[in-house]
Amino acid sequence: MRALIQRVSRASVRVDGQQIGQCGPGLLILICAMQGDTEAQAAQMAAKIAKLRIFKDDEGRMNRSILDTGGSALVVSQFTLAADTARGNRPGFSTAAAPDEGRRLYEIFAANLAASGIATQTGSFGADMAVELVNDGPVTIWIDL
After folding, report:
1. Which of 22, 36, 61, 81 has its CA 20 to 30 A from that of 95?
2. Is the pTM of this model over 0.85?
3. Catalytic residue positions?
4. Where is 99: in which H helix or E strand?
């Protein structure tokens, strides 16, 4: 699995002009299932992100996790994280999981994140979404598992 996480003051996602998910303060998580990914990897990614210490402690150091802060998460599927730009000017996405498998692993990831105690909302898998966020820091981290 591949994730791009952003520490945010707030974030929201809209489909057809209607807000369907939001969070803040906490994390906006853009997630992509790759070919060959497993349920175990989806669970491992959720656990890693839940425990990742990227929030400030009382001394201003990044030493607290989203679990420590009681923050919330917005999880948005984004197959374009699988982009291969090695050849030419048009990205290829052949390393992304097939849509049905991608949806299944996306849902497992979000469910595991919520089960860890994080208030979690999601976008709409495969939809054309408008994502809005206020990046806090900015802190943006790429994770591959």
Report:
1. 22
2. yes
3. 78-80
4. helix 99-115
Q: Which amino acid appears at position 1 of this protein? A: M
- In DSSP notation, 47-87 reads HHHHH---EE-TTS-EEE-HHHHT-EEEEEE-GGGG-B-SS
CB 11 within 8 A of CB 134: yes
CATH of 2-144, one of 3.20.20.240, 3.50.80.10, 3.40.1400.10, 3.40.50.150: 3.50.80.10
Nearest CA to 73 out of 102, 43, 30 is that of 30
Mean residue pLDDT across the chain: 97
Mean pLDDT, residues 18-35: 98
Place of tokens 């803040």: 24
